[in-house]
Design a protein that fits this description.
Structural class: mainly alpha
Distance between the termini: 23 Å
Helix content: over 70%
Number of strands: 0
Number of helices: 14
Radius of gyration: 18 Å
Order of helices and strands: HHHHHHHHHHHHHH
Length: 303
């Protein structure tokens, strides 16, 4: 199990490697490509394969969709009230409403909850049937509309179907009735363990703090929803109004409290949606979440 200290160390290593130019400028992109094409699919093939159908799994799948829709309404209302630009509003919708349920979420689940009862599988399910599907559909629509571009239905569907983790998810579900050979399971496990250190080193390589001036208000609103308000709404809705509880709900709400998703940030930057604000949301949100997640783990312990 990764400790919080080791997670912080991996993040710090990414920062330190950038300054003396020890790594090329595209190092983060290369690491992300390896994670998306190898590490994350390996984890999916290993852990989702072990999932058993249950009504409780509807809550993890629904969480990212609820977070995004509520966040969309929240940031539009606040943005119009204080007269932010459409690009800034869209940047906050994408980064504030979509949690980093893979690169940060999975290591944090392992650090706080372990994996003795399939906690990682729940996290992966949230990530694949929730976060990435929201980003590839509603997220893409928001990015395109606010950047005055266009997106065809066929293009969106193609992006979803060809996304490597989504392909791995489909394969894992098809193979659910069959046992993996011992060698295959061991290989998938070893490849999957590369996700945690590589993902956090990649995050460290992308931290940028020099553009904080003049954006503190937008940043505060975005991170408040991402780290506090959004997961609180999920807690009230799932545990309070619907009466859900147990380990799966704990992990689900804990994942809702993750910092802004890197994939959503990339989509926002590609569409020129206030790139400096997007970078700050990710760069400050991740280290700040190391503190807020401790508080959330204590709150969720009573569920």
């Amino acid at each position: 199990m990764y400790s919080i200290g080791l997670l912080a160390l991996c993040l710090l290593l990414g920062v330190l490697l950038r300054y003396p130019k020890r790594v090329p400028d595209n190092a983060a992109s290369v690491l992300n490509a390896f994670i998306i094409h190898v590490s994350l699919p390996a984890l999916i093939l290993l852990h989702v394969h072990q999932l058993k159908p249950a009504m409780e799994l509807l809550f993890p799948v629904a969480m990212p969709w609820v977070m995004f829709v509520v966040g969309f309404v929240f940031f539009r209302l606040v943005g119009r009230l204080v007269q932010w630009t459409p690009q800034s509003i869209a940047a906050l919708i994408l980064t504030g409403s979509l949690a980093n349920t893979s690169f940060v979420g999975l290591p944090m689940i392992e650090a706080f909850y372990g994996n003795d009862n399939g906690e990682l599988a729940v996290g992966i399910l949230i990530d694949q049937l929730g976060t990435y599907l929201v980003l590839s559909t509603l997220g893409v629509v928001v990015a395109v509309v606010y950047s005055a571009g266009h997106a065809s239905l066929s293009g969106v569907v193609k992006k979803i179907l060809l996304f490597p983790p989504f392909i791995a998810l489909a394969i894992a579900l098809v193979l659910t009735p069959f046992e993996y050979p011992e060698g295959v399971e061991h290989t998938l496990e070893r490849l999957g363990t590369t996700l945690t250190p590589l993902a956090l080193v990649s995050v460290g390589l992308q931290l940028r703090l020099k553009e904080l001036h003049g954006r503190l208000g937008k940043l505060s609103v975005g991170l408040t929803y991402s780290l506090v308000l959004g997961p609180a709404i999920i807690l009230i809705l799932f545990a309070g109004l619907m009466g859900a509880g147990g380990r799966i709900i704990q992990v689900t709400i804990f994942e809702a409290a993750m910092p802004p998703q890197i994939g959503a940030a990339i989509v926002a930057m590609d569409h020129k949606l206030d790139p400096s604000l997007v970078a700050l949301m990710v760069g400050l949100g991740i280290p700040l979440s190391f503190l807020t997640l401790v508080a959330w783990s204590n709150i969720l312990a009573v569920l």
